[in-house]
Amino acid sequence: MHSEEGQRREAVRRVMAGEPVAAVAASTGRSKPWVRKWVERYDPADESWAASRSKAPVRVANRTAAET
Length: 68
Prior knowledge:
The chain is an all-alpha fold. The protein has helices spanning 4-16, 21-28, 32-41.
């Protein structure tokens, strides 16, 4: 699988099948924290669990009020 999402799904599948995180990380060229992140994010009830999420903040803390 060449897509980013496909790599995530394959890494999680392999870990869930019993393969060590270190082995999956080494064979995919990714870090162990990357593999753990996607294993923790895995949710069989949510089909979009492997999709990228925005890193932008949900709200800006120091924004001027609209009524000003």
